[in-house]
């Protein structure tokens, strides 16, 4: 029995040994199998632990859960699918980006990494090292992709910092390690590829940084476009070579089309007056009163549109192209809301005008004209804003093509609706012609934008147009004051000249009309200059903006001298054109030389004021205009005209001294500005846009439920 037990114990021990050997054998097989399987996994899919490194703050670009407590994530989660996962392509969404355009995804960087990987045989990290400070800018689109080199160096050090035996052991398990290069050769080849990439990109696309973090740690902004150095669609203001000669040519090429455009616009009110003038003196007076009222009112909306002289060119110069379209929508929406009370005033104008004008028939005709004009004012607002939208993109000749069609058609329509015996409606036909002309101008300019040039900065309709009206109003109110201060000063002089007699009133009307017409020449120079200044400020090149300002001021002297010569040498033909009365002709001939001298001051005033708008200093310009015109120029004009009895000479001397003072003050601040303050203000405007992007993804799309559907990216 004892023998049997001992044999059984021995057999059991032998069986246990065999089982143990079997388990070891199978464990060895499974371990070998597992190691071979892991060796076949691409190294880029293997991370340390859960993908969070210890030596760097880095986020694995695989999938990771949403941290609702993260201030960079919690506000910017999409309201639809994929709320519980984030991948590499949705990293921008985690940081507040509204990018959903497949053309704007960061997959291009992945393709570049894989291309380098194929050429080198090396492996690229799929992990992005975040900067050590929030204020640092992660420029993942720089030509050399320096962050890739740094990441390679770190990965190489961590992977090959062990002993040689361990490396050999690793290479025996993982075939990818056998293809790694020595460190020196590895870095040399990457540096060579970096230099080659820089040379290639000088001939091809230059990309701005996809991700930029502002110095105050605001939400990064994802640029929505590529900028091409050689592209005809977009100017690269940040790298444009600017000299005195080149800038002078650019400003001249911008100014000449604008001059033609503005001069053609001034023909329309003249056609209206000439058409109605033969109906009778009451009709002519009613058109004059209605034109004065409408001009003062429409100047308000032209002043609001001047805010685009700052916002749109700065956005275009900084590469935020679709922001130009958002500024356009915002300004139009703001103007339309402001227009509502003015439309009501025009509709009820008979009651208000009766308090000023005693003649009931004149008031009735004027109110009738203004009621019809209510339908045309929205088209005028749209046209003025759309025109500045194109000007911000350097498109200045569109107005010429539009007005080349509208100017002759306005003459034909006005004559037909006033005088045609079949469809003519008399006096009110002139108002209908104005409405038709305004809508025709806008429709043609819109068609030009859609089918010819200008739509590249349109990103679609957006709810963002209904925000930041307070910021817009700061620029708009200043622009209104700048335009209205001068507009009303001319009207005040015309009003006071009536006390000298009918002949003096006629001579003053002629001088004011010619001044307003010739003012378009320096005004065009100012618009061109302000656009260039704002473009360069947006691209952070204040030295180029300063050069544009100096050349613009120089051009103002040329424009003023040109106007002066026209009035002096053409004073007799001008007098004969406006009147047949010898007394009126004599007064016009005598006053025009003085008006000609004033044109030099007015030209400096026009260009310097426009430069201030380009610099975003409308507030300063509005204060200067308001104070000088109404506390100095007009009082001096009244003293010289009435007390000293210089009549029209006194009025024009007073207004001329005011224009000289305004021009000198504004030109000084244009030529010797505080660029730090100007650039800081431009940065504030940009950061305001970025903050708005962080609040909402508010673009109108056909299907907001589809996260993969392409949408437009707007910076504002």
UniProtKB/TrEMBL annotation:
According to the UniProt entry, the coiled-coil residues are 180-207
- What superkingdom heads the lineage? Eukaryota
Q: Which compartments does it reside in?
A: Membrane
**Which keywords describe this protein according to UniProt?**
Coiled coil, Membrane, Transmembrane, Transmembrane helix
| Listed Pfam families | MatE
What main location does UniProt list?
membrane
One GO BP annotation here? Answer: xenobiotic detoxification by transmembrane export across the plasma membrane
Q: Where is this region: Disordered?
A: 689-716
Under the heading InterPro entries, the entry gives: MATE_euk, MATE_fam
Q: Name one GO molecular function term.
A: xenobiotic transmembrane transporter activity
Q: Where are the transmembrane segments?
A: 254-276, 328-347, 362-383, 395-417, 423-451, 516-535, 547-569, 619-643, 649-671
Mode of membrane association: Multi-pass membrane protein
One Gene Ontology cellular component: membrane
Record family assignment: Belongs to the multi antimicrobial extrusion (MATE) (TC 2.A.66.1) family.
What protein name is recorded for this chain? MATE efflux family protein
Query: Which species does this protein come from?
Result: Torulaspora globosa
